[in-house]
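Re: the multi-chain job from yesterday

Posting the exact lines I submitted so nobody has to dig through the queue logs.
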Amino acid sequence: MFEKLSEVKVLRDPIHGYIHVDLQVIWDCINSREVQRLKRIRQLGGAFQVYHTAEHSRFAHSLGVYEIARRMVEEIRDLRQTLSEEEKITVMAAGLLHDLGHGPFSHAFESVTTAKHEEMTRRIILEDTEVHRALVRCCPSLPESVAAVIDHTHPNKILVQMISGQLDADRMDYLLRDAYFTGTKYGEFDLERILRTIRVRDHKMVVKESGMHSVEDYIMARYHMYWQVYFHPVSRSFESMLALTFARLKQLRQQHSPILDQIPIFNAFLEGKSVSPHEHFLMDESACNYGFTLLRQCTDPIASDLARRLLDRDLFQSCEIHTEKQLETMRERLIEKGWDPAYYLTVDEVRQRPYQPYQGNENSMVWVLMEDGSIRELSEASVIAAALVHGESKNDLRMYYPREMEKR
Amino acid sequence: MFEKLSEVKVLRDPIHGYIHVDLQVIWDCINSREVQRLKRIRQLGGAFQVYHTAEHSRFAHSLGVYEIARRMVEEIRDLRQTLSEEEKITVMAAGLLHDLGHGPFSHAFESVTTAKHEEMTRRIILEDTEVHRALVRCCPSLPESVAAVIDHTHPNKILVQMISGQLDADRMDYLLRDAYFTGTKYGEFDLERILRTIRVRDHKMVVKESGMHSVEDYIMARYHMYWQVYFHPVSRSFESMLALTFARLKQLRQQHSPILDQIPIFNAFLEGKSVSPHEHFLMDESACNYGFTLLRQCTDPIASDLARRLLDRDLFQSCEIHTEKQLETMRERLIEKGWDPAYYLTVDEVRQRPYQPYQGNENSMVWVLMEDGSIRELSEASVIAAALVHGESKNDLRMYYPREMEKR
Amino acid sequence: MFEKLSEVKVLRDPIHGYIHVDLQVIWDCINSREVQRLKRIRQLGGAFQVYHTAEHSRFAHSLGVYEIARRMVEEIRDLRQTLSEEEKITVMAAGLLHDLGHGPFSHAFESVTTAKHEEMTRRIILEDTEVHRALVRCCPSLPESVAAVIDHTHPNKILVQMISGQLDADRMDYLLRDAYFTGTKYGEFDLERILRTIRVRDHKMVVKESGMHSVEDYIMARYHMYWQVYFHPVSRSFESMLALTFARLKQLRQQHSPILDQIPIFNAFLEGKSVSPHEHFLMDESACNYGFTLLRQCTDPIASDLARRLLDRDLFQSCEIHTEKQLETMRERLIEKGWDPAYYLTVDEVRQRPYQPYQGNENSMVWVLMEDGSIRELSEASVIAAALVHGESKNDLRMYYPREMEKR
Amino acid sequence: MFEKLSEVKVLRDPIHGYIHVDLQVIWDCINSREVQRLKRIRQLGGAFQVYHTAEHSRFAHSLGVYEIARRMVEEIRDLRQTLSEEEKITVMAAGLLHDLGHGPFSHAFESVTTAKHEEMTRRIILEDTEVHRALVRCCPSLPESVAAVIDHTHPNKILVQMISGQLDADRMDYLLRDAYFTGTKYGEFDLERILRTIRVRDHKMVVKESGMHSVEDYIMARYHMYWQVYFHPVSRSFESMLALTFARLKQLRQQHSPILDQIPIFNAFLEGKSVSPHEHFLMDESACNYGFTLLRQCTDPIASDLARRLLDRDLFQSCEIHTEKQLETMRERLIEKGWDPAYYLTVDEVRQRPYQPYQGNENSMVWVLMEDGSIRELSEASVIAAALVHGESKNDLRMYYPREMEKR
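And the result, structure tokens for all chains:
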């Protein structure tokens, strides 16, 4: 029914060996300008400033999520037999397209714009884009169903669980991929084993008890990747500085500074209105970096200095905050030395528990199919998960300030 | 002072890249008949019956422990600078020699003999053996000091901690090695990072806070290896059957059965007296397996049947025991069908907590050097370790019986 | 038609991830005593004396050959569509069973017995064994067809090519496996790519031009493994000494020495008659090693000394021979010192060309399917292969003698 | 004498485990804006259009070359003992800095500018830059000596050989790194073994005969990487189209087109004069890609179309050329359909022999130290190398044209 390619296309991939594509609609989506743009957006925001090889793109990750979704619907018997052909295509396309709405350096960039990346992803899929046309050519209802999987409203909850549950294609790909490209081992877990032990029961994906150890390992992998990579103080320093830089640009905009006339790259994003998919399409990491290159040459000393720091990796130092006093003292010292604390001091806090099932939120839970046929939430089956749920969460509160403040 | 080889010998090793040997005494020990014998003893007892590639020997593991000990004393500055040359040689030799006293299939075999492997190791090092002579040639006090490290009585507790603490060369090698040779990923952790973050403080090895995540990962690796490999029901089935076979042999011995005159291989071990290092030397897995080959052809139906099952992998089934009744029922069914429960029914229980520091036992603890210079026991520094210490331990109680009992 | 298991069995394997078994006949063969015996025969003869982790068994290799054969018939479309179900089972079983006839330490051991391992493999498959009965239960003609694939007489030449051609499941598994277990990288090549580019044309397996580079890489991998592992002088020293030991045993046998009455293990093999499959079954590496343990304690000084050297790795030295004179001089020096050159001096030569297609022997050739649809022999398509075919072959002629002869 | 850091800095790297830095001058160079710029230049030009994960930067490669150079001077005894401290720093810095002069997409970009990257590298090291100042702070003669190593004029030829010989740090890093990031296995070889077998004889680096097999493997790895990655038709298509795009820009420049006033990014490079280090500094892949983003919106239909194709990966098809006629026919068909062949048809040829020592060019040779102490050029010691030198070279001549020409 759905058009197949004349022969299977395979793309070499270090994580999955090969990415296999045999549907015309997937191939057309991959070749669309919106998906190709993801080659110009790095997967890991500022982490390349800590792990110098973490330069992989959201394009590669998107292919990986598609590939895991494809393997799920083809290799897990319960899914192969219960999902319709259209549902299978929907979930594979959702895997490929779930990150379309991201801007450069993701979270920092979102802080400037009012639109969230989830909303932008939805618009790209539903409005008149190459991706949209590719989906429609395959099946007119596909854009709506793909968008519904991505924003969690699809009536078949298994499709949602496959792309954004606790054991989903998105996280499984990014943990393995980020581990490979950073060169750490923390993110490794046994994907094969997990895929082999997934079943469908009570309209949801569950893991057989014999795969529970692999899930425990996956949860620990995720915990370690958070603290060693995603929450690394240097990553967060870079991202904090991006946010400060955009805050300065917004300020210049409010002052109608002529500087921004010569550096129009960011303008659409500084007006406080939502941007269009076309404006979004033009904004990638190349544009952003070239914007900083222009900015470092501009006459505003703060914007110029922050842009230089970002490009040359002259990043802010950080330290843990234990008392209000610390922050106050730093603020005073900065003012004393002539630095504006609005742009040279910032604070952020991260907090995480490795596994945390929330009452009433099925998507936050992992389900285990016990040997006796019963189904339990993970922390009722695993002594490890139980310990983690009842233990404390870990948090880290830091302030960031110029390296120069450390010199005496 | 201590004799060096004219050039460094290197042995290819998949875990460490190369094993490096530049001391004459280490080279002589490696080439001694007692260490070479370890090539004929598998590292993992019955696990090769589950993981068909788990066929690596205690010889390879012993080289690996030596290599990690060597790297510790050469690459960890605090150890390199504080240990004397003799202490360094002592700990490297202890790493190489710590498993000398093992018999075939380790724990099952120990159940027959009265001597424990620790005691046999001590005798091999201290009595007149090739290993002993190699150590004495280097330094007359070396046998005593090496034996003291292995049996935890050495006055320098750091040497003991390096070979049998919580983060010791022995465990670090076997986790990595067993993971590699089983083909699982559970046992992997970041050895490089742990070695890089070890320091010496208060006369003990501690890990810098920046390496704490790697230690958490190591602890989880250990936990998973226990349950997925060492405590796998099939491994335990094989080992239980070994114990039953030896129990049968002991019984035959007590009955002065003429069978054992034709199969003298095991005799020295069935008399209830302690064996000599020479008798121990002759008993390896080749002898044991060939003994089973003879036994399968003998006239005692139970010994012959058990030996056949061991050789042909016709292993006992197992199931978890929840009630006394289950065991009783199985016993009755066995008797009904003409099987002697003394040799066809057995029970074992395993229990484990990933990390458990015991009051008053320093060796059970991992110490963390915090950024502020203080030293904390791991579960006071890590929310993961704290959760695990306060969570439940995991246990598994099983009975084993012939496969034939499952057929109806 | 052919009985399937109720659920697919999977065996963890470091080379292939998992070995997949879904046919009853394959599962029964794996569980037969003849295949289980291969756990007691190492894959690599004496190489574990150079690469201390090369301790993997022929059992693991046999599973690997089966797995590659299974993937070939299931994943290569041209094979999946043209082979009958019986042919598919035949070739998978042939992969699993092709090594059954091997004795311990393979080639050295064959030098004692008159039967060749190919002939013994054939007898085990065709005579009354557990393996034979498992094959017959599946299909009465299976033993004959499996044996025909193994001895190259099967009418469908593709089946022969799959198990013992130039790009066969046997070599592809052993190169990858031996590389993994020695810890070298020489044997690595891109199995996935080769499998993906195999087609069937003109009743033979060919490789698409786009996979030719992977084949070149495979040929170089094979070349390097030969010289770095299989032909390593230390491996050859160990194997030469095995042959000398067996020669001594034969001599003792001819002299009706009473020694062999106390060490009957080898007797069946010393009589010059062909051994039965049952006698063959009893002879494994455990028996052989235990035989050496007894031999080292016997009263014949030569047999005892050689056995000790084998067990304790006190191996002969070797050097390249360039002139007849060298050999003569060594012989004279040995006699002078009281060593019998018949047992303390031996010579062997190895010679190899990485790729050598022989006229009239289709099995010696690799065929390439060019983009224009024509088929060429590899050296007509690849400048690398052409260079190797027309270049010189490499050879190495060595003599082996006791280490003691080197001391002055 | 030369300033050390207070503690060794380590950077996680998937190829080398860690990059180790303990010299202040190396740390300062890494943190210079010129070296940081290399984060914005991909290592592999257009190969990311074939291998979607080949997105690693020249920054990561530069660290890797430094690390191999560091290991050479610290771990190879002959180098450690014969090179002076200043020579060691010189060669490590040369490894780190050898690629500074590269523009975006390397070779394609060079075709526009008159300056070659070697010349630009030299200027950046010798003129007033952050890198230059860091070198001078360490030692005033360092810029000159580093530049001399890079442009092959340094009096100590071993330093030149280490960075740009046949077995140099540059190639060894890029083969391993490119293999890792493309996910292919072709580029793997045994770096450890090669480093372990390097010696210095007759004022040059030689490899011991026992490492010769690793060198053969390295040469084959290089050959395969060339044809599978660097010369892949899709990489070459992307790079050909870059050259056509720049050709179009030059044409617009010559016509004084007003388009370039609005897109000034490339102007400095289109004037036919040599650019300054500062202009070079501003031109990275971000600038280039953003330039294409502007260009796709411009009014010149050819420039706009080519820019769109580059950004959206709508690349030219290619086919091998066997006759002049093919090219002529394509040219005519293009004109007929209204495409300008000057911008829509291009030809390139690649040619390579895996190993080719040139008379009189010592740097083109690998030297082998034979067991008898003599030194031979590789092809006189290795039957593999000899075969390759005397075999044919491989070449590939292709034309590239729009995909649309294939549709009928």
